[in-house]
Amino acid sequence: xxxxxxxxxxxxxxxxxxxxxxxxxxxxxxxxxxxxxxxxxxxxxxxxxxxxxxxxxxxxxxxxxxxxxxxxxxxxxxxxxxxxxxxxxxxxxxxxxxxxxxxxxxxxxxxxxxxxxxxxxxxxxxxxxxxxxxxxxxxxxxxxxxxxxxxxxxxxxxxxxxxxxxxxxxxxxxxxxxxxxxxxxxxxxxxxxxxxxxxxxxxxxxxxxxxxxxxxxxxxxxxxxxxxxxxxxxxxxxxxxxxxxxxxxxxxxxxxxxxxxxxxxxxxxxxxxxxxxxxxxxxxxxxxxxxx
Length: 292
Prior knowledge:
The protein is mainly α. The chain has helices spanning 4-10, 33-49, 53-65, 73-77, 80-88, 90-106, 113-116, 127-148, 154-161, 163-175, 177-197, 199-211, 215-218, 222-242, 246-272. Helix 8 packs across helix 15.
């Protein structure tokens, strides 16, 4: 019979994983569908509320620069320094959102995040198809905006306010926004709704929830809002059909990446005399949202 001493001796030097490796278990496996949806909704609400964080970063500048004044929103939005502070403040908001999502998805490190988010490829949609879908969705959005036009949006005014603001938006459009949004919407919200309502209803709900924070920013440009709805629907359908999040992330990254390249190249295109109108190109960059 093995004694406790024998057991300890035979396992000396052994290492035990601190993360549970359970393939494709989803972020809320083992929880009731209602509890999983509650956690998902709270996470989504926190991500939306955090988009107001940049306003706090701008307060010290506003208080000191406009001391004794009562600046209107129009005055503040015409101040390039305020705009840059607000845009830069999106980065810490994204990082905090990722930290919250990690805690929810992994249950503070008890579950492997790759498995919980289903961060892998599917045979039906691999890297090549994901890149192609991203480019195709961008082209479709571009054509919709060109065909129907619309009034200048808030994001367009920000991009056109200064080169610094435009570069910051281009950076976050590829560095953090696709990752944050895919984890929140297709990685957390979709599986929670799917367990409760089924995949078809979940696709509709998540598509609409994705649009909610974007609508105030792009109102009343219905062409841009419609383009965002198409992108969200396509990404969520890919998530539902493949059961994987990685293809959604790559599609989203490519979509944003094309626009980021256009923002970076804008001064050179203008110099060549071939730049698109400012009211068309930036309008479909949707990823940095709702920070006013």
